[in-house]
Write a structure and sequence with these properties.
By secondary structure, the chain is α/β, with parallel strands linked by helices. The protein is 37% helix and 14% strand. It is globular and about 50 Å long. The structure holds 8-amino-N-hydroxyoctanamide and zinc ion.
Amino acid sequence: MKFGYSDTCLDHETGVRHPESPDRLRAIRRGLADAHSVEYVEADPSERERIRAAHDGEYIDSIETFCDSGGGNWDADTVVSEGTWEAALASAGLAEWAAEAALSGSDGRQTPFSIGRPPGHHAEEDDAMGFCFFNNVAIAAQSVIDSGEADRVAIFDWDVHHGNGTQDIFYDQGNVFYASIHEDGLYPGTGDVEETGTGAGEGTTMNLPFAPGTTTAAYLAALSEVIGPAVEAFDPDLFLISAGFDPHEHDPISRMRVSTEGFGCLAAAVREIADDADAALGFVLEGGYGLDTLSDSVRKVHEVFDGYQ
Ligand code: OKS
Ligand code: ZN
């Protein structure tokens, strides 16, 4: 696979006991070190204009000012350092790259995977939360729509947490479909089955909250029976995966039970959906906090595309 990566994403410092650490990216790269066909692409950071595709201008300014002042706690979970501003722009830029690379992927059709941090799916139009500042996947989706590279984008979020930010940003839009499987009762508490969109977006949001302890098999059944048919009916040009690895059975902050092999199965399932929908496919990293489980699982996704060794 082609991995979007930038050292600048390491400059978002969260402190010694924070699970969303720069070591996550180092672990992923270590895990891929002896795999074939790994290519790293350092995409440009997002332009402020592109961040505006998903965020309020005053909010963007307030993040910049907070970083310039040295940072601190935005909320109890969401920590800012001086390097957060550049890292957040880099992370959004990598997601934009993934969307664009997927859509222009006639050259060998290498599936792009953006491994940026900070993650994005909790970030609202005008607020940071849950370790997220800019909603990387939303910026990527709206940017390729704004540029005319895509008319319709589907997003499937397999992170263990509900992507409240992504859902809200697109809640009233008919050109972006958002589907999430998440652990019921976990942070941030949104993502009820009854949240289905509004106005032009009615029916373009789909939430499947699953009980703690759910295994890979249930995820695969949901993909083949519910999410796959809905994505195919939506008929997107681009299918983006908000790929969090925190539903892993050994992740420290969730109780879901997807195995390392299981993430390979999820990757194969979304590839099949993209193929059936005739849509380009790209992955964008969200959460995942066990360093070994994260790196093993990303490697497993890579192997589904580029062969087992
Ligand atoms: C509440 C716990 C905060 C959890 C943040 C979740 C981050 C994440 N004190 N989102 O996908 O992985
Ligand atoms: Zn998560």
